[in-house]
Structure formats: structure tokens, C-alpha cells
Amino acid sequence: MKISTIALVTSFLSISACAATTPTPELVGARQAYDQARTDPNSKLVPDSVLTAKQALDKAESVHESSPQSDEDRSFSYVAQRRAELSIALGANAKAQQDEAATTAKYSQLQDTLRTSAVQKLGVERGAVNQLGAQLAQTQTGLAQETDARKAAEARAARAMESLAKIAQVKEEARGMVITLSGQVLFVTGKAELLPAAQDQLAVVAKALQDQGDIKPIVVEG
């Protein structure tokens, strides 16, 4: 009878010891949460938070060993689980911030590229416009010079015609301009030498023809 009682007591103590070392649901949850936090791809972004979760779990394990199934065991396990879950959340938030920063940097770089391209394109277009403006100014200057030259030539021709009209008869015919000088002032009778006055008149005619500017054939008749 004593032997049975001892065996029964030994069996009870064994069952009690097993029950005492069984982790609480809170500790199981804390362990699982920490494993998830430790292996999370974003854990490297929040190493301090992961370390804090590990320290909380170590404290819960220590309390479980010294006071299993107690309120203190459950309390520290609960805190460890929440620390691990917070670490996971902080990792996800850090990853989101990292992605946002990368997107912002990429967008800023794209803006800079577009701005630089636009400035370069604008510079090229401005250069082309300036070149066209310079060419237009040069053309206008040339036209103005040609106009001034034409007006000056016309004025010279008009003055020459006025001078010519004083010493000769000038008229337009189908064959062209006909200039008739008075024959009695050109030669001495019986000679072919021009008189000085005739030479002066012919000089005036020659200058008038030169001032016309146009190259035309001249026919001299006598």
C-alpha cells in the first residue's frame, strides 16, 4: 500500500512539473511574433526595434523559468509579443518611407532631366532665332543700302539729264534714247577736228551716259 502511494505521489509530481514548464499562450505568441520580426525583410531597417523585441522576449523567458504560469509570466510574454509586433510595423513603415524617398528622388531627377532638356532646346531655338534675326538685319541693311544707292543713281541720272538737256535735244524713240547735238558747233568747215566747245559738250554727254549706270550700246552718227 505504501509503495502505491509513493508511486502515485511521484506520478503527480511529474505531471505537475510538466504542467509548470508548459509555456503560456502569451509566451507562445511572443515567440512566434519575434520569429516573424527577426526574419522580416524589413528588419534590417529597424535593428534597434528588433533588439528591443529580443530583450523583451528574453525577459519573458526568464520570468517563465522562475515563475511559470504566473500572472507575471503572462504579463511579460504579452509585452514581448507587442514589442515584436511593433517591430514588424515599424519595419513596414520604414520600408514605405524608403520607397517614397526613392520615388521622390526619381521624380526629382526626371524633372531635372526634363528641365535641362527644355533649357538646352530653348537655347538652341534662341540661337536659331538670333541667327535669323542677324540675317534679317543684314538683309534689311543690304536692302537699305541698295535703295540708297538706287536713289543716288537716279538723282545723278536726273541731274545728268538736266545738264544734257541744256546742250542737246534728248528724246525717247523705239530704238532708245536719241541725243542730238547742234552740228554747227562741232567742226570747223572743211576740218574733222572738234572745237573745244564741242569737246566740252561731248564730255557732258559722256558723263551723262556714265551716270545712267546701265550698260547699253551707243551708236554715234554724224
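(ticket continues) Second input and output from the same batch:
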Amino acid sequence: MTEGAEQLGRDPGGGRDPLRVSMTASLADRLVTAIAVGAYSPGERLPPERELAASLGVSRVTLREALRQVSEIGLVEARRGRGGGTFVSTVDWEEVAPEVARRTLEVELPRLRELFDFRCLVEGMIARAAAERRTADDVAELHAALAEFDRVEGMIEARALDHRIHGLVTAAARNPHLSLLSARLTAAATLGFGAEPYAPEFLAQARAEHAELVRHVVLGDADSAGRCAQAHFSLTLESMRAGLRKAVARST
């Protein structure tokens, strides 16, 4: 592990507000872990600073400091000019910060177990409603999004299309309260970032499960759609567990 990774999340503060130092350290650890589990992929641009700070419930000052800490170990980089922003670098997190991901996931996963269960139940309910209420336009859009998902290879594109498919299913349920609840649970279950973990080893499974879910929704089979969605959303937990296994293997 690099010296920067050892210090990440452990800055004594040097006279600064201890609470803000702690919040910054925790956020830096979560950013590293989000990269480790595949919530953000190499080459991907992070959301704009204002948007990301608001979604995480932190100040822009805290976010900037956390990003600075993560950039010091090489996992993100700032690019200026048109099309600039903060991007995930090609540096391998397993080389520079496995212990950061390990300690974060060892705390977060047990705490999130019941939340993951609740999320699966809610997404099953959404899929049931979608199967009962989908329209011809919903069916056409789902088929188009699924066809695109079947063609992609990159994780950035796969995550975007995953988001689109599930957004279409949620929209087909036609209940804004369910849409809001789904978004809140997604954020809570993904370390606050709202980006689903996506690793190459799970892509084939995701393709098959998306195809099954869309088929049940299109056919109007509410019971099967509900069961399928409930099982499919456990893939997020499996992705995070896989990240923990890698982190443990590299940090011991």
C-alpha cells in the first residue's frame, strides 16, 4: 500500500475542525470504495461538483477536500478546459488502496443488509406494477434499451443503460412515490452515490437478468416480474461483496 493510501481518512487535522476532518476522511474512503466496487469506472467523469455534493449531503468544500485526498493516491484526476471535470484514472485501486476499501466495506455491508432486503422487496413491487400497467410505448422503449444493453461492452455504457432500463420499468409502474422511493434506496444502497456497482465479471449475469425482467414486464406477468426484480437487485450486494473479497485478498 502507498503512503498516501495509509494516510487516507486518517489526517489528524492540524488544528482544523475535527468534525469536518472526519466527514472529509469518511467521504474520501467512500469515494475510493465506490471505485473499488465498480460504481465508477476508469475513464468515467464524476458528476458535476455541485450535483455530487448535493446528492451526498455535504458542502462543496468537504467534497473538494475529499477529492483532493483521493487524487493524491492517483485514483481520480482533474481535467481542465472544455469537457473537463474530475475523472476516474486508470490506476488500479487494488494496488494503491485495498485497505481503504476493505475497512469501509467491512463496516458498511453488515449495516446495509436489511436495507438491501427492503430495496429488493420494493423493486419487486415496482416490477409487478409495471407488468400490470405498461403501455405499448413502454414496451417499445424497453425493447430498444435492452437491445442497446446487449451490445455494450464498456462498464460506463453498461451502467448508463442499466439505469435506463430500470428507469423505464419504474416509469411504467406509474406512481411517483415509488419512483422517489426507488431513487432514495438506490442512493442509500450504493454508499450515497446512486451509481450501481458494475464489474465486468457480472455483465453476462446482468444481461440475462435484464432480458428476463423485461420479458415478464412486456408479457404482463406481474408475479414473475416481481420475483425476477427482487432477485436481480441482489446483484448490487453481490458486486460489493466481490469488491470486499478482492480488497481482503490484496490487503493481507
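Agent notes: Strands lie at 76-79, 85-88. The first strand starts at residue 76 and ends at 79. Closing as not reproducible unless the customer responds.
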